[in-house]
Amino acid sequence: MSWMLPAIVGVLGIGYPTVFALLTRGPARWRAKSRVDVIVEGLTASLMVVLVHEFFAWWVVPVVLWLIPVAILAWGIFGAVMAWPKLPWLREGRSWARTVIMAALSVLVIAVVLIAVFA
Full-prediction pTM beyond 0.70? Predict the structure, then answer.
């Protein structure tokens, strides 16, 4: 049972930034279709890195292990900056109301989690 928490933390800490990096720098079929997608996924990946840093005992592992998710997130942010001019604000075929509601809900959840953790 003692291996379970570090495994979950590792999957979350590397998984979310990796998904974000694939959305911005990965194969064409995996790339984000709109700027709103990039913003929401970037915030989610950043939140996961912050939460993993907050709740994991980083003093028991080498610093290199902490740099891995940070480097992956940085690569995703670089990809987002490079892809930004080519992306439309809204995904084609999706109504603006649905996009705004989904983005607002995502930002709300992120804000609630951050307030709950750091308040």
Answer: yes
